[in-house]
Amino acid sequence: MPLITCENVSLGYEGLTVARDINFSVNRGDYLSIIGRNGSGKSTLLKALLRLKAPEKGKIIYGEGLRQSDIGYLAQQTPVQKDFPASVFEVVLSGCVKSRGPFPFYSPDDKKKAHDKMALLGIEGIKNKCFRELSGGQQQRALLARAMCAADKILFLDEPVTGLDPVVTTELFNIINEMHKNGMTIVMVSHDVHCAVKYSGRILHMNGGVLFDGTAEEYKTSAAGAEFIGGHKHD
User: Fold this and answer.
1) Distances (CA, A) of 189 to 85, 86, 161, 200, 222
2) Which residue among 57, 127, 172, 174 is least crowded, i.e. fewest CB within 10 A of its CB?
3) How far is residue 229's CA from residue 224's CA, in Å, rounded to a whole number?
4) Which residues touch 133 (CB under 8 Å, ≥6 apart)?
5) Of 184, 194, 227, 205, which is closest to residue 24 (Cα–Cα)?
6) 115-144, pLDDT tens digit by residue?
7) Mapping DSSP to helix (H, G, I), strand (E, B) and coil, where does residue 155 land?
8) What angle do CA 202, 205, 207 make, to 5 degrees?
9) Where are the domains of the chain?
10) CA angle 107, 146, 137 (to 5 degrees)
């Protein structure tokens, strides 16, 4: 049974429907990139999959016993987040909040998990530094480590490399790829179709609905892929 299934889903915001009749599933082990033009409903779909936004129509079904506490989410950064007055360790550790249940304090296991994720992303050496003093790449690594602390089965990423230079972008994609190889299911919204095709295994192309759903290799030779890859690298 899939982790998440969309059945005849329609999505919108501010009274405007942006996507209709969405039918697809997220399966365990997927590395799925959701792509499309601006306004095509990519981020709206991601929020609906996270149950942060209700569909206008249709159903989104969690399977395999998937719970909110199994899910990690790296949202697009806001100016408030970038100026957050906390240490790197505090930001990363906050990703464990869902696992605490009724208990008010972080456990030793929570703190070990935070240290492990910081070490994995190469930021343990700056764990006591204030988050707002970090570079954009360091901030994104800290937020990714936080999302990893929350994710047991599936990690959602919304434009994780926006505004980062090419070197940091490649480093973060390599880290995400290693997480996938180690068993994490990845669902990522990306504006960069070239990186999506290069790194992910499956493409969901949104255009008022699902224009394409298949492997990255199939997408390259599809009508949608031929047009989008050829002329719309940064849409």
Assistant:
1) 28, 27, 10, 11, 20
2) 174
3) 8
4) none
5) 205
6) 999 998 999 999 999 999 999 889 999 999
7) strand
8) 170
9) 79-152
10) 145
pLDDT at site 234: 39
Residues counted in the chain: 235
A 10 A CB-CB count for 10 gives 17
89, two tokens = 């360790």
Is the confidence at residue 84, as pLDDT, over 70? yes
Q: What are phi and psi of 25, to 5 degrees?
A: -130, 150
Tokens representing residue 181 in the block: 């190889």
The mean predicted confidence, pLDDT, of the chain is: 89
Question: How distant, in Å, are the alpha carbons of 53, 85, 120, 126, 180 from that of 49?
Answer: 8, 30, 27, 33, 19
What local confidence, expressed as pLDDT, does residue 235 receive? Answer: 39
Residues 6+ apart with CB under 8 A from 103: none
Tally of CA atoms within 13 A in the half-sphere of 121 that contains its CB: 29
Question: Cα angle vertex 233, ends 229, 235, to 5°?
Answer: 115
Q: CA of 227: how far to CAs of 36, 50, 189, 202, 231, in Å?
A: 12, 30, 19, 18, 6
